[in-house]
Every structure is written in C-alpha cells, then in structure tokens.
C-alpha cells in the first residue's frame, strides 16, 4: 500500500528521511565505529551529507600551520605549542609536593608543533627518571634560549611602514610636542651626544640611550610617540632594539620644518642685519625696515614678523587706507563660511573671503600671516585672530602716514628737530674734545721734572703701580707684601719714574713698617711721601 500521511496502515513510520532503512542504519553503524563523531543532526540525515564519497583523511599540506612573517612582530615562525599536562589532580599534587625543594621550572619555548614523536613522556618508570628528564630539558632551554627568545620586544625587528595618514598624524604629534624655538639647537646637541654612544660609528644606538638623552635635553615627547618614531628606523641587520639615530634626528627636524624652516640659518643672519641697520645714522632710514633679503615665493617659508610688515607695506602702498577695507564685511563673510561657528577655517577658505572683500594681499602674505599668528592645528587657522592682526597693522600704517598723528612724529622727526639733534651732538663732541686736550696738556706739564708738582705726580703713579699687586680684595685689611718682593718693586718703580729716593731712606722705612717679615705698603707709602 502506498504511503499516506493521513491514513497510515500501521504506527511504523516509513519516511526514510525520518527513520532510515536497515542498510542505511548498517552504514551508519560502521561509520560510527570508525570515526567518533557527535550526534548527527536533522540536516545531515535529510540531505545525506554523511554518506557521500569524500576524503576523510586530509593530506599533510592541509593540516600544517601557515607561515607567519617577521613583520607580524612575533618571535616565533609559528605559534608556540600547548604544553601537554596531566589532568589528574592526585598526580599533580604529588608532583608539586615532591618538587617543593627544587628551583621553579622556566617556561618551555619551542618553534616546532609537537607530534606524537616529539611529545614529552607523560609516564615514567620511577621518580628518578622523571627528575633526570626535567634537568635535561632545563639545560636544553638554557642553551637555546638566547637564540629563540629575545627578552626585549620593545621595538620590532623590521622597520614599520606607515600609511600616508599615519605619517601625517605622527608628524603632527611630533610638531605639537616639540614646537619650540630652541629645538634645532637641542637636536644638534642630541646628535653630538649620541655619537659618543656609537663608538664604532655604525649609525645605530640602543633606544634606551635615545630616551634618556631626549629627556635630559628637554625634548619632551610622549613615550608612545617616540617609540612609534623609532620603529621606523630599526634594521633587521642590527641587534634588536638598536635605532638609526641619524635618520631619526633628520626625520624629527623634517617634522619641525613646518613650524620654522631655516630657523637656525635665520638666527645666524639676524645679527648681520642688525649691524647693517645700526650703521645707518639717518633717523629717517632707520624708521623704515630694510629688506635685505629676497621675497620670492620659491624661497623656503620663514614666518618672520619683520618680513610680514614689509610685505604689508608693499601690498598696501598704492591702496587707499581711509576706510576702504571694510572689516565688518570681512568678519561677516568669514563667519558665514564658518557654518559650525568653530572659529577656525582652512587656508583656501580664508583666501577666498579676502579676495571676495577685495583686499589686495598676496597669497604668500596671507599664508605667512596665518602660519605666524593664526595657526591652531595642522591646516586650520583662527580667522578672528587674522582679522584682529590686519586691523592692528593697518592702523599702524595709517598712523605712520598721517603727519598729524604722534606716531608719525615719533618715527619721522621734523627738519628743525633733526637739525637741533645734530647741533647738540656736535656741541657735545666738541666739549669732550676740549676736555681731553686740556687733560693731556696738563698731564704733560706736571710730568716734567721742572714743574713744582711733578715729583708728587710721579710718586702717585708709583703708589698706583704698587696697589696693582694687591691680591686681597678686603680693603679693611692692611696691604702687606714680603720684604724682598717689596724692596724689588720699590727699586724698580723708583728707577722707572725717576723719583730719586735714597736707598738708605728706603731701607729705614722698610725696617719701621715691617711685621713678621712682611712690609705694610700703606705705611711705607706714607713715610716715603714726606
């Protein structure tokens, strides 16, 4: 009778999807005896996936682990093995009690996935055999440990390659943390100090030396930032942890060049420019800042305040300054572009608004003003500070060009005042010249032997010469010299200044002014001056 769902002949279910037939049950029993599989689900029995012809023993190439490269920052070519342990708690307690008197075992490292032939023996014939096996394993570990396990994984073996976004972020972090005016000089000192650590001139030093020296020199960077930067300059040909310090310092200087490029060169040129300005004696020339340098767009960027003011004067020379620049309109347009009211805009947005308001400023000048006075982040600028700076500078230019303003009178003096200053300076020089001539003439006359006060003038010179040999700066104490030294000095100065003091008189003065073998020079000069 055909199978019907609603009128079954007996209670036995004939559906082979629900209850397999005897041949299928026999195959299932044979398969279960060969392979210890779990309970078969309904899906497997329905679609007969359990009984299809398929490979049950895969080749070795499918079971071997995949190779991991060194860039994975792992010290193993494959994952370390899972050590086989005995799960019997009684045996574990006995082994722990027996090994209390021994040293703790070191962790076992290996680079080979253990198979049946490489697995350690779990059952031993005696405890002595077990301890001997453990000692052999410890000796093998001590011999292989330096080659297999590096204990300092602070830096990778191979250099880390960053994406463009990661490079930008890292340079921003370095620029933010080291943005100061003295960084260039400190980088030079850092390079000189690291040379002392590199005795063989390999170009590589350990990262701990770099960390300690950067901290001592005040180059305060976050530990993660410095570590990330050093990861770029390691080498697989060098021991692990050694960094190419030349490339590292060059990279940090390149990151800082966005703040003040050519900073060190400009500091060397600045004293020369100041000397050239001091050499110009004209007040009118000194009022105008000199432009000894070339202002080309191709030159490296250097946000110098004096250069910005020179460019402002050149751009606004033929521009009407009587209210033509509408700062209210400029502020309104900038606030309109700043939709989020964050107070910051990028360079292109600021330039578009400046040209929309028709302010005749060069693109390079706008960029220099933004970098010098309005920079907030890498590519964003405070537009309110930009408007404020323009207002201050243009107000100064107006005041200087307005002859009725006190600023104009300060920087550009009148012709009468200029003549008065010149005449006063000439009279002062003439007065000093007369005084010097009088002093020289008077000294010459008094030095002559025929002059009544000539001898005392020469004696004062002798006294001054004697006081130059005083070593003690305490004036309250007496000035004493050894007797032989005092006699030698008095004889020499007596001969030089032609004082004609008798030798016997000088000897009597020394005897009267002697103390413990020394001569009091103050009393000796008083006696000889009489």
TrEMBL record:
Residues 80-113, 128-153, 266-300 are annotated as: Disordered. InterPro entries: DUF5580, DUF5580_C, EF-hand-dom_pair. Residues 133-145, 266-284 have a biased composition (Low complexity). Residues 454-528 form the DUF5580 domain. Residues 80-108 have a biased composition (Polar residues). Pfam families: DUF5580_C. PANTHER family: GENE 12695-RELATED, SIMILAR TO HYPOTHETICAL PROTEIN MGC34837. This is DUF5580 domain-containing protein. It comes from Rotaria socialis.
């Amino acid at each position: 009778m055909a199978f019907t769902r609603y009128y079954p002949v007996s209670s036995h279910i004939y559906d082979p999807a629900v209850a397999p037939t005897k041949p299928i049950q026999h195959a299932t029993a044979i398969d279960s005896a060969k392979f210890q599989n779990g309970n078969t689900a309904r899906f497997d029995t329905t679609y007969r996936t359990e009984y299809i012809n398929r490979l049950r023993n895969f080749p070795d190439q499918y079971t071997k682990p995949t190779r991991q490269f060194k860039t994975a920052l792992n010290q193993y070519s494959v994952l370390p093995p899972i050590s086989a342990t005995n799960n019997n708690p009684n045996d574990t307690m006995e082994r722990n009690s027996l090994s209390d008197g021994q040293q703790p075992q070191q962790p076992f490292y290996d680079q080979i996935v253990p198979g049946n032939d490489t697995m350690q023996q779990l059952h031993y014939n005696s405890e002595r055999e077990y301890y001997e096996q453990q000692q052999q394993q410890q000796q093998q570990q001590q011999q292989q440990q330096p080659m297999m396990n590096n204990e300092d994984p602070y830096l990778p073996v191979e250099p880390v390659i960053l994406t463009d976004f990661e490079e930008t972020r890292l340079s921003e972090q370095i620029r933010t943390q080291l943005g100061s005016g003295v960084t260039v000089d400190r980088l030079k000192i850092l390079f000189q100090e690291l040379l002392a650590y590199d005795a063989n001139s390999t170009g590589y030093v350990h990262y701990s030396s770099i960390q300690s020296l950067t901290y001592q020199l005040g180059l305060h960077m976050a530990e993660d930032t410095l570590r990330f930067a050093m990861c770029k300059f390691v080498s697989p040909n060098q021991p692990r942890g050694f960094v190419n310090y030349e490339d590292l310092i060059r990279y940090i200087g390149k990151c800082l060049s966005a703040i003040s490029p050519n900073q060190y060169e400009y500091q060397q040129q600045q004293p020369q420019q100041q000397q050239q300005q001091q050499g110009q004696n004209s007040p009118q020339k000194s009022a105008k800042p000199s432009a000894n340098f070339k202002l080309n767009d191709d030159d490296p960027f250097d946000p110098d305040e004096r250069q910005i003011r020179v460019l402002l004067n050149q751009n606004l020379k033929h521009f009407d300054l009587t209210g033509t620049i509408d700062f209210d309109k400029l502020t309104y347009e900038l606030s309109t572009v700043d939709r989020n009211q964050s107070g910051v805009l990028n360079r292109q947005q600021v330039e578009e608004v400046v040209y929309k308001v028709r302010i005749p400023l060069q693109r390079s000048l706008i960029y220099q003003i933004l970098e010098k006075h309005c920079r907030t982040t890498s590519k964003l600028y405070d537009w309110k500070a930009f408007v404020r700076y323009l207002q201050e500078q243009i107000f100064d230019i107006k005041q200087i060009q307005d002859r009725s303003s006190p600023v104009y009178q300060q920087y550009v003096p009148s012709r009468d005042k200029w003549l008065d200053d010149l005449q006063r300076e000439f009279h002062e020089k003439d007065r000093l010249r007369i005084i010097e001539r009088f002093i020289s003439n008077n000294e010459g006359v008094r030095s002559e032997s025929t002059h009544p006060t000539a001898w005392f003038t020469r004696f004062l010179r002798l006294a001054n010469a004697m006081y130059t040999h005083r070593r003690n700066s305490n004036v309250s104490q007496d000035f004493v010299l050894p007797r032989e030294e005092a006699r030698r000095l008095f004889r020499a100065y007596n001969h030089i200044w032609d004082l004609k003091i008798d030798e016997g008189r000088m000897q009597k003065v020394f005897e009267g002014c002697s103390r413990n073998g020394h001569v009091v020079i103050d009393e000796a000069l008083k006696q000889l001056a009489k």
